[in-house]
């Protein structure tokens, strides 16, 4: 699989330079291409993105308004997706002294490639003014813009810095979330759920109190609240479990918990099976997860909780489960050899674990 950084390759830059040369007669196509591809192989994904924005700054007009006009003219001819983040990145780099124009530019550029990272630079320098604009975006007719209102103001957006003001006072973004809690676009609802999940990591009581006031019978709102509560449910948070009527006093017995092998190699799959038997005289609504304990480079174990199934276990009922887990390196996880653990978790409580060895050959 080709590395993600190869989205910014020489073919991309040739097209990119051609587009800007067509949008601005004064644009030095060859000079830009030379500068932007210099030492290209030494830069990773985000380094390439930032370098592209910097080289645009070098080759476009020093007049920010004129530069943005060229960006706007070029934008429809550029590829959408991650590489289009160059445009909002340019705004974040050069547009802080031109607030109104920059907000208009980000509103447009987010429809081509999300401006979630760029808008946070404005939140950092002028929080109140920027948040006011984002509250207006939350009721925009374009779903990309509505998503930006939520995603850009997340307290703990991955690949970005934390918004300490929102972590300290999560009510700051409440108006945005209230506007989007019944949004009919899944792309937006996922962002709202992730925003709420972020809040739950620092202010769980506030998050639960907020969603308790929402109509979870509405299918869109119900989906958001359920997805937003995933971290709390995995932790077995009693207040969160009660919101969804999960059993707080679980009585089950784990039996026949087995692994398909005591040792596997990197790239292999491991299958595990188990049964859960009810030991309660009334039905139990359960969320069943499994936890993989991965060794880190230091030898310490880190946990990753994976969702398995939600069930209602009847009195005396016994259910069987089987799951295959693949162990291979990904961009988000590097594996290390040695002892690993798999444990079964029911409503946030561990009921048993099994160990196996992961072998890595060079």
UniProtKB/TrEMBL annotation:
Top-level taxon of origin: Bacteria
Xref: InterPro entries: ARM-type_fold
Protein name as it appears in the record: DNA alkylation repair protein
Organism: Chitinophaga fulva
């Amino acid at each position: 699989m080709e590395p993600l950084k190869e989205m910014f390759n020489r073919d991309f830059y040739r097209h990119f330079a051609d587009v800007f040369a067509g949008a601005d007669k004064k644009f030095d196509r060859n000079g830009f291409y030379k500068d932007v591809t210099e030492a290209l192989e030494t830069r990773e994904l985000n380094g390439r993105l930032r370098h592209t924005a910097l080289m645009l700054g070098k080759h476009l007009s020093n007049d920010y308004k004129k530069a943005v006009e060229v960006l706007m003219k070029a934008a429809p001819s550029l590829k959408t997706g991650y590489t289009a983040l160059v445009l909002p990145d340019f705004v974040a780099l050069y547009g802080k002294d031109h607030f109104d124009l920059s907000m208009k530019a980000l509103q447009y550029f987010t429809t081509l490639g999300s401006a979630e990272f760029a808008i946070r630079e404005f939140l950092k320098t002028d929080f109140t003014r920027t948040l006011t604009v984002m509250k207006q975006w939350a009721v925009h007719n374009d779903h990309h813009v509505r998503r930006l209102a939520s995603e850009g103001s997340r307290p703990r957006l991955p690949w970005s810095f934390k918004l300490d003001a929102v972590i300290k006072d999560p009510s700051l973004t409440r108006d945005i979330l209230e506007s989007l809690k019944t949004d009919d676009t899944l792309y937006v609802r996922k962002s709202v759920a992730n925003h709420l999940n972020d809040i739950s990591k620092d202010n769980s009581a506030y998050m639960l109190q907020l969603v308790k006031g929402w109509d979870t019978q509405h299918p869109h709102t119900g989906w958001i609240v359920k997805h937003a509560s995933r971290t709390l449910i995995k932790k077995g948070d009693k207040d969160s479990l009660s919101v969804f009527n999960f059993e707080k006093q679980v009585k089950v017995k784990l039996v026949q918990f087995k692994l398909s092998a005591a040792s596997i190699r990197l790239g292999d799959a491991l299958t595990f099976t188990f049964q859960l038997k009810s030991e309660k005289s009334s039905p139990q609504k359960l969320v069943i997860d499994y936890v993989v304990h991965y060794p880190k480079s230091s030898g310490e174990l880190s946990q990753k909780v994976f969702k398995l199934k939600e069930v209602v276990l009847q009195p005396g009922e016994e259910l069987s489960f089987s799951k295959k887990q693949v162990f291979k390196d990904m961009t988000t996880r590097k594996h290390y050899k040695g002892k690993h653990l798999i444990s079964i978790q029911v409503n946030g409580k561990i009921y048993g674990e099994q160990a196996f060895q992961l072998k890595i050959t060079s």
